[in-house]
Design a protein that fits this description.
- This protein has 10 helices and 22 strands.
- The chain is α+β, with helices and mostly antiparallel strands.
- It has 4 domains: 80 residues, 2-Layer Sandwich (Alpha-Beta Plaits); 67 residues, membrane protein fhac (Ubiquitin-like (UB roll)); 62 residues, no CATH class; 70 residues, no CATH class.
- The C terminus is likely disordered.
Length: 398
């Protein structure tokens, strides 16, 4: 492999030799230390390779042996360089590409944040931007140790942080304080703390761990009714009250009540009908800079479909270079009327989403009565829901 590479650097030619005595031709080449390789014979004709320097020494040998030699193929760097210089545009593009590749290595083209759960990535990137740490920043201008200190100072919930450069990528790893937040001690007040009902309903389940229950299962309560009192009496031996202890009540209380859901949908609606006419505008974006085609007159009513791609070359370099297109599609707003089946599908889907959100909050749906009718030019759905949910609102006693 090394020998082949050296031959390529010096250059060589593939020649065809025939005539009076090709064998004597090869013997004389050997006597004069001219290297021949990859020799092949076809009848009375020989094919072989010889170095570029050796080829210039073949003329006296050819005359002496009465043979003929012609070049079939030129190989090696000495033949490639003149071709490159002849193609100046290609050579200039190659030089600029290499220069861009080398120059891009001195900048940060991607920023990643790992380990942030309480702090959103948008908040984190905004903080970095305020401190002049953005995509396109010079790597030499980054003080990673100072950046770590700034992050810990700005976000008290972060207990550990690490910033490092991996090629053109700035990798920031943080660890947030995942220890449970201890509740602050509540100042003891003469009235203590009570648990009150948040809405009206019937008590169907009640487990009291601390405090004095003021209602029982089966009782009907109104909003604001005290369910568990935080003033616990301490009795003497004769059953008289000696003193009161004030506690924060701890209880699981569920109320059952009826909940009303109502939603409407107009008979008439505007539906998009696309005409099939489109216009496409291409763009090229580098970081925060965008180069677009000239703007032309668009349609009166349209929407836009954005397609964005990143060249594979810049994907490996992590350079934020994107190209894509904005396709504008003309449409017309056509009046349409919802039929009964369409209205059922739309309103039924909204009701299902509402019930799903209730279940996510821990609300149990025991019974539901759904009715659909029309009123004031609209489809209307009404649902009476019998639900069971926690009904405790913690507040201080006045």
């Amino acid at each position: 492999m090394v020998i082949r590479f050296l031959k390529y650097l010096k250059g060589y030619v593939r020649i065809k030799v025939w005539g009076f005595s090709p064998e004597r031709f090869m013997n004389l080449c050997g006597n004069r230390n001219l290297l021949l390789w990859d020799i092949e014979k076809e009848g009375e004709t020989y094919y072989m390779c010889v170095s570029l320097d050796g080829f210039y020494q073949l003329r006296p040998i050819v005359r002496k042996t009465g043979t003929k030699a012609v070049i079939l193929k030129r190989c090696g760097l000495p033949f490639l360089i003149p071709k490159l210089f002849a193609r100046k545009v290609f050579l200039l593009g190659l030089v600029l590409c290499v220069a861009f590749w080398i120059g891009s290595a001195f900048f940060v083209w991607e920023i990643s944040v790992d380990g942030n759960y309480q702090i959103t990535e948008d908040v984190f990137l905004t903080f970095l931007e305020k401190n002049d740490v953005t995509v396109g920043s010079r790597k030499a201008g980054l003080d990673l140790e100072n950046l770590e200190k700034l992050i810990r100072r700005e976000f008290p919930e972060i207990t550990w942080t690490s910033a490092k450069l991996n090629g053109t990528k700035l990798e920031i790893a943080v660890k947030e304080n995942d220890a449970p937040v201890l509740p602050q001690e509540t100042e003891t007040r003469p009235g203590g703390m009570d648990l009150t009902a948040q809405y009206a309903g019937t008590v169907v389940s009640m487990i009291v761990r601390s405090g004095v229950p003021k209602v029982a299962v089966g009782d009907t309560v109104e909003p604001g009714t005290v369910l568990v009192e935080g003033k616990v009496p301490v009795l003497n031996e004769d059953a008289t009250v000696r003193e009161y202890q004030y506690v924060v009540p701890d209880a699981d209380i569920y109320l059952e009540h009826w909940l009303t859901y109502e939603d409407t949908l107009p008979f008439d609606t505007l539906r998009r009908v696309y005409t099939g006419r489109t216009k496409t505008r291409y763009f090229l974006r580098l970081g925060g800079y965008e180069l677009k085609m000239p703007q032309w007159k668009l349609f009166l009513v349209y929407d836009c479909v954005i397609r964005e791609n990143k060249p594979a070359l810049f994907e490996k370099l992590r350079i934020p270079v994107f190209w894509g297109s904005n396709t504008y599609r003309e449409y017309q707003n056509v009046e349409s009327v919802y039929r009964l089946e369409q209205a059922k599908d739309i309103l039924g889907g909204r009701l299902a989403d509402f019930l799903s959100r209730l279940e996510e909050k821990g609300v149990q749906i025991i019974e539901k009565n759904v009715k659909m009718d029309t009123a004031d030019g609209m489809w209307r759905v009404t649902a009476q829901l019998n639900v069971r949910e926690p009904a405790v609102l913690e507040e201080g006693t006045p």
